[in-house]
Amino acid sequence: QVQLVESGGGWVQAGGSLRLSCTSSPVGVPIYTMGWYRQPPGMQRELVALIRDGGSTTYADSLRGQFTISRDGTKNTVHLQMISLKTEDAGVYYCCADQYWGKGTLVTVSS
């Protein structure tokens, strides 16, 4: 059973930056696509970004250029660098790896 552990969420002022990380275990289980979704308060979960084993990426159109996804394939770790955060970026951010999901990490952005 693959487990995902997220870290890096927290509180930030609008305009600030955060970096989320997620590591899958056990190491050695092949993971093809890793990424992030988010769920703003009172809203549905939505795609943030995905990164595939070969390095190709997919971003939500509205987040391209503001968020950057990267991956350390040897450690099955995915990162999400978020800059210029807005209050509407707040929510629970979920890591995904193929069909597996993390428990989520909360991002709070204050104005």
Describe this structure in words.
With 111 residues, the chain is mostly beta strands. It contains no helices and 11 strands. The mean pLDDT is 95.
What's the mean pLDDT score? 95
**Estimated helix fraction:** under 10%
Q: Order of SSEs, N→C?
A: EEEEEEEEEEE
Low-confidence stretches: none
Number of strands: 11
The helix tally amounts to 0
Bin the strand percentage.
over 45%
Overall shape: globular
Straight-line distance between termini? 40 Å
Topology:
Layout: E1 3-7, E2 10-13, E3 18-25, E4 33-39, E5 46-52, E6 57-59, E7 67-72, E8 77-82, E9 91-97, E10 100-101, E11 105-110
Parallel strand pairs: 2-11
Antiparallel strand pairs: 1-3, 3-8, 4-5, 4-9, 5-6, 7-8, 9-10, 9-11
Features:
single chain, 111 residues, mainly beta, seven-stranded mixed β-sheet, 55% strand
Q: Summed up, what is this model?
A:
By secondary structure, the chain is mainly beta. The chain has strands at residues 3-7, 10-13, 18-25, 33-39, 46-52, 57-59, 67-72, 77-82, 91-97, 100-101, 105-110. The strands form two sheets. Strands 2, 4, 5, 6, 9, 10 and 11 form a seven-stranded mixed sheet that branches. Strands 1-3-8-7 form a four-stranded antiparallel sheet, with no helix packed on it.
